[in-house]
Amino acid sequence: MEKVFKTKRTRNWWIIIVGLVVLIIFLNVYLEKNWAFSALGGIIIPVLMFYSRSKTIYIVKDNGVLEIKPGWGNRICVDGIRKVSYNPNAIGMQKVKIEHAQGFVMINPDKPLEFVEALREVDPNLSVEGFEQIKTN
């Protein structure tokens, strides 16, 4: 049976700060400030990329394939997973490193322990590192 995991959510205050910046830029565009058009273009693309990243889902399939579906864009199928490691000190949204036959991919599932257990159900010989550092509450 497939198991679905979402990306770990960001803190609400980051969303509020980004929203305020976008609101200020829109206000300046409305007031016809010349610099605001450039700023608007410069902030829209990163906001859309961040949104897509925050809406990514991870599907662990029965055949051992990990399917990564971003908010939009092409889905990625990861096959031949050899090792999964957790780095709690990683900056941003990439705390889990999955090494596979073609290279590696960095992800951040909302429930990393359950995610690793789902991968281990499919492949009991999977090498796992660093997940003991996760604090369970």
Question: What can you see in these coordinates?
Answer:
By secondary structure, the protein is α+β, with helices and mostly antiparallel strands. The chain folds into two domains: 12-52; 56-133. Helices cover 37% and strands 23% of the residues. The chain has helices at 12-30, 34-54, 112-122; strands at 3-6, 57-60, 66-69, 76-78, 83-86, 96-100, 103-107, 127-129. The chain has a four-stranded antiparallel β-sheet, with helices on one face. Strand 3 and strand 4 (76-78) form a beta hairpin. Helix 1 runs antiparallel to helix 2. The two termini are 27 Å apart. The mean pLDDT is 82. Keywords: Membrane, Transmembrane, Transmembrane helix. InterPro entries: PH_YyaB-like. One of its GO terms (biological process) is bacteriocin immunity. The chain crosses the membrane at residues 12-29, 35-51.
How is this fold's topology laid out?
Layout: E1 3-6, H1 12-30, H2 34-54, E2 57-60, E3 66-69, E4 76-78, E5 83-86, E6 96-100, E7 103-107, H3 112-122, E8 127-129
Parallel strand pairs: 5-8
Antiparallel strand pairs: 1-2, 2-3, 3-4, 5-6, 6-7
Helix pairs in contact: 1-2
